[in-house]
Amino acid sequence: MPSFVMPASRKGEGHPSPAAVSAVGLRKSYGDKTVLDGIDLRIPAGSVFALLGPNGAGKTTAVKILSTLIAADGGQAQVAGHDLAANPQAVRAAIGVTGQFSAVDGLITGEENMLLMADLHHLPRREGRRVTAELLERFDLVGAAKKPAQSYSGGMKRRLDIAMTLVGDPRIIFLDEPTTGLDPRSRHTMWQIIRELVSGGTTVFLTTQYLEEADELADRIAVLNDGRIAAEGTAEDLKRLVPGGHVRLRFTDPAAYRSAALALSEVTRDDEALALRIPSDGSQRALRSVLDRLDTAGIEADELTVHTPDLDDVFFALTGSTGPSRPNQPDQPKEDVR
């Protein structure tokens, strides 16, 4: 399947944002199974990038390579301006990683988890306590700070996990399916945390099982399938890749309805609702074309709505699968840990 890649930015085309993460031709195989088959990535600093793909597509493998947990078989990558292969220590100093499975130690308190992380980052004792106190307050965990983490709810554990990640003040955070298994309220809380991180200048690389999550959070989305990037762009860009988009015009005047049906081409009529459906990719140019033809004919619609395919449609078209979970669906099986 050919890949589709949209322009990296529509703002300041001549001055693209510096890349927090860039990769060219990343490859990884396990035995005779190719997990990543030469993927290219460019993630601007201070943005949210979402990587979608079916279970086993290689999302977690990409995160592990870019966070120095495993080595690629081929290709090159830079993270936070450092070459992944030549200077992995500098990369580790600039990033934080939160995986599908929490790094929280349930046998000690939330505060002790934070202080342990501060020790691992070699923070002076006073500085470690200051950072711990600030992050516990920021993530609304002060009331539970002295309680064993095993008593925390799923959402509290995820918040603690991200708070622990932030102890080292990373410039780039890899969140590998951070909301899988959370209830809708906890998921929305996590979304707000992610938005706040980005507003503060942090770059977030997100893998997710939830299409709505990518649509809500990501500046750019890439769909990974069979080890390759099948498409990349904004959510709106991706939605325009698949057919089904249309403009719907509704009229209250039957005469205006009939005139519009004659003035416009390729319309589907709904005589009972006095509504017309015109194929459209949802772009401003396509919408202007419809309106110009109506204006030329002196016709005014009472209601105009633009319908574009959603990310479910995109995912199915690009991967041939039913897509990741929606928030109100049971969680899908986890991707292979590789």
3D structure, described in words:
A hairpin with a 4-residue loop joins strand 13 and strand 14. The relative contact order is 0.15. The longest helix is centred in the middle third of the chain and has 16 residues. This protein folds into 2 domains: 189 residues, P-loop containing nucleotide triphosphate hydrolases (Rossmann fold); 62 residues, Alpha-Beta Plaits. The C terminus is likely disordered. By secondary structure, the chain is of the alpha/beta class. A 7-stranded mixed β-sheet has the order 1-11-10-4-9-8-7, with helices on both faces. The protein has a 4-stranded antiparallel β-sheet with strand order 3-2-5-6, covered by helices on one side. A 4-stranded antiparallel β-sheet has the order 13-14-12-15, covered by helices on one side. Helix 3 packs parallel to helix 5.
Q: Please give the CATH architecture of the largest domain.
A: 3-Layer(aba) Sandwich
Under CATH, the topology of the largest domain can be stated as Rossmann fold
**Morphology call:** elongated
What distance lies between the first and last C-alpha atoms, to the nearest angstrom? 24 Å
Task: Present the secondary structure layout.
Blueprint: E1 4-5, E2 19-30, E3 33-44, E4 48-52, H1 59-66, E5 74-79, E6 82-83, H2 88-94, E7 95-98, H3 110-120, H4 125-138, H5 154-166, E8 172-176, H6 184-199, E9 203-207, H7 211-217, E10 220-225, E11 228-233, H8 235-239, E12 246-250, H9 254-263, E13 268-270, E14 275-279, H10 284-296, E15 303-307, H11 311-319
